[in-house]
Design goal:
By secondary structure, the protein is of the alpha/beta class. The chain is about 40% helix and about 15% strand. Helix 4 crosses helix 5 and helix 6 runs parallel beside helix 8.
């Protein structure tokens, strides 16, 4: 079988990235992912500036098929080198003394990368979390996370759009997390805890795959 242009380009890109990989121990992230597996991910941070703020908490859980593997979860506290903004403390409740005994950033990121492996990432407004992680791992790898990413709010938007009559296509859709969970008839756990948020994103992902006919 002859590889098409797309697969040839992907192979070339993979080879180029592996050649420039800063730490050979993490080559496994470019392996073919386990079939029908994903990792739902969430982070809490010192603030919302992706250029200067830092991760203080990571929560992740593995998804296999239609199941969330609660026994295969990751929950880490990370010790930052900068203060946590008061606005962020009001959101996630983590104070500097709460994370003072946390892991250093490099150790936490290495544990996270091993937990993820080559699995596709799932999350709610995942772009922010990935940007924070990419900045933290760049000194280790010389690049960001290579795994594909799936945004559950985009899946939810697709599902809600299908329910609109033609004359309302393109109308604004409420993408707030609480609204999404309510519309999907899913439990809303205590918010702004990284592991809880990752589990809720995983629940939404599984439900939306079924509703969109992707399961």
């Amino acid at each position: 079988m002859i590889a098409g242009p797309s697969s040839a380009w992907q192979a070339l890109k993979r080879a180029w990235l592996l050649y420039h990989l800063g730490d050979e121990r993490f080559r496994f992230m470019w392996d073919p992912p386990p079939p029908d597996e994903w990792v739902a991910l969430d982070c809490e941070t010192t603030g919302l500036n992706v250029h200067s703020d830092q991760i203080i908490s990571v929560g992740a859980v593995r998804i296999v098929g239609r199941r969330i593997l609660a026994s295969q979860r990751l929950e880490l506290l990370v010790r930052p080198s900068r203060p946590i903004s008061p606005e962020s403390v009001r959101v996630h409740g983590l104070r500097e003394r709460d994370v003072a005994q946390g892991l250093d950033s490099d150790d936490a990121m290495m544990r996270l990368m091993r937990f993820i492996g080559s699995r596709t990432l799932v999350g709610y407004y995942l772009e922010f979390d990935v940007a924070m992680i990419d900045r933290a791992i760049f000194p280790l790898l010389g690049m960001g996370l290579p795994q594909p990413k799936i945004e559950v709010s985009a899946m939810y938007y697709d599902w809600k759009s299908r329910q609109l009559p033609p004359y309302l296509h393109g109308a604004s859709i409420d993408l707030r997390f609480a609204t999404m969970m309510r519309e999907l008839d899913l439990p809303l756990r205590n918010g702004h805890d990284a592991l809880n948020d990752a589990v809720m994103a995983a629940l939404a992902f599984i439900k939306l795959r079924e509703l969109l006919g992707r399961a």
